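stage 2 :: seqdesign
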């Protein structure tokens, strides 16, 4: 099964895997599952690194390469994904979260997230 991870879970999986819920770690370790990351997550990291956010110290190019080298596939953003954002509720305000939920919906791929608000629209429970 394909699994799309939100940006926070990608960072945890790479640097602090013990922060992931046991169920999430098991999903990611299973050879039956294909972990995916969105190009929106790389864009989010680039944006936050560029703003000097101290909680985003990862080098985006190296991080992307490491994800690919560790078996993650990249899900690019398409026009269909952008259009699907129009159907999302206004309470989901973060543009990166909106894109991840739209991609998850359009592609019918479960979105793993630690954000309770995003989880309401991802079809999966909180993945912390």
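stage 2 :: out
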């Amino acid at each position: 099964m394909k699994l799309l991870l939100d940006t926070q879970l990608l960072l945890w999986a790479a640097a602090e895997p013990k922060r992931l819920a046991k169920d999430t770690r098991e999903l990611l370790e299973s050879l039956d599952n294909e972990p995916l990351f969105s190009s929106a997550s790389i864009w989010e990291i680039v944006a936050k690194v560029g703003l000097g956010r101290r909680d985003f110290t990862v080098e985006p190019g190296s991080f992307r390469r490491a994800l690919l080298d560790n078996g993650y596939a990249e899900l690019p953003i398409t026009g269909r994904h952008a259009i699907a954002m129009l159907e999302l509720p206004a309470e989901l305000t973060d543009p990166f979260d909106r894109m991840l939920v739209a991609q998850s919906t359009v592609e019918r791929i479960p979105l793993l997230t630690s954000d309770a608000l995003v989880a309401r629209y991802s079809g999966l429970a909180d993945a912390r």
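stage 3 :: structure notes
- The chain has one domain: 2-122.
- The chain has a mean pLDDT of 92.
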